[in-house]
Each structure stands twice: as C-alpha cells, then as structure tokens.
Amino acid sequence: MANIQHANLTGAELHEPKGADSASAGMVYIADGAGSGSWSYLPAGWGYYQHSTTGQSITSTASKLEINGAGSLSTSTFLPREIRGADELWDTTNYKILPIRVGDLYEARIDVPVTAEGGTPTQLKIEFDIGGAATPSTVIFERYFTTGKTTPYTVSFDTSFAALNSTSVTNGIQLFVSTDSGTLTLGAPGITVKKIYDGDY
User: Could you tell me if 42 and 26 are in contact, meaning their C-beta atoms sit under 8 angstroms apart?
Assistant: First the structure.
C-alpha cells in the first residue's frame, strides 16, 4: 500500500486534533512553539452582580461597596469556562473582586445609584484595595466622582486593572467608598467583571 501523506487526507480520512477526545467543552489548542501544545480554556468571560436591596449609607468613613449578587439582573452564565459553575469573579459575601491568577487582566463597570444626599457631599471616592483588611490599607488605585446633583442619579464608570501579584489573588480586590462630607444613600449597585487576558498565556 502506498504511503499517504497526512496533509493529503480528505473526507472521512480526516480526524480530530490529537487530544480532542479528552478536552473539555470550550477548550482550544494552544501551541507551545516547540512542536507541541496543550488544550486550554479561552481566557475571556464575564459576570454581572447586582445588589438586591437599597439603602446603604455612604459617609466620610470608608466602607465596602455592598453588592450581594442577589439582584434580579445578576448572571453567572457567561463566566470564564475554567470557573463557570464552580467559582465567581465577585465575592457576594465579602464584597470583593476575585482574580483567578497573577497576570490576569480585567475590565470592570461599576454602577452606583444615589437615591438621596444628606449634608453637602460634593465627592464620592472609590478605592480599589488589595490589603484584605476591614479598612483601606493597600490601595492600588482610586477614582473620584462629583456628587451634589439632583437625586436620583447614578455614578457609572469603566476601568481596567491587572492582578499584578499574589496578594491581589489571595486577598481579592475590595471596593471602598466614601464621601468628602455628608452622606449618600444608595439604590442597588451593580458591577460587571470581565476577564480579558489570562496570566498563563
């Protein structure tokens, strides 16, 4: 029988790539540049988490933004496949972002509805913190937003961030909120956390 080059196979002679029979749904083959490779999940995916209650009071003392993920719009359907059904990108009990591994890159959209103001707050500060403490201790960045508007209104913003070290993975990334003075009463905040790059690639 004549030898047939693999590249010349057609029709029913073709077969799935090596290892496809044991790869999980959603995996793709990643070449290692040395003649081999492995099956891995695509790095992308997202979850949306909405608070189910209203009334959190924000003062000049920093407190964690409360998002319990029990709001009607919350969904984990589109999380990265490597954690889908087993873990989340947001801790709905301790209120923090949960990076999967060092080197991962994420995007987040945060919506903070303000239903009432007390006193004369002119600024809302949001701090991203990896210290793991009850108050801000290791702030990796912060954002400021103008308040003093006619209520109700919503403070919304998008940002990107990376899990730069093991501390951010071990402790997670807490979101602390505070005013410069007075109080803000919140509606039901929400956060979208999207993984866009995998630290293993």
Answer: yes
DSSP collapsed to 3 states, 131-191:
CCCCCCCCEEEEEEEECCCCCCEEEEEEEEEECCCHHHHHHCEEEEEEECCCEEEECCCEE
CA gap 58, 116 in Å, rounded: 11
Residues 52-84 pLDDT 10s: 999 999 999 999 999 999 999 999 999 999 899
Q: Which tens digit of pLDDT belongs to each residue from 23-59?
A: 777 778 777 788 888 887 777 899 999 999 999 999 9
Contact status, residue 173 vs residue 90, Cβ threshold 8 Å: no
Let me know if residue 1 belongs to a domain: no
Read off the pTM: 0.85
Residue range(s) defining the domain that contains residue 21:
6-40
CA-derived radius of gyration, the chain: 22
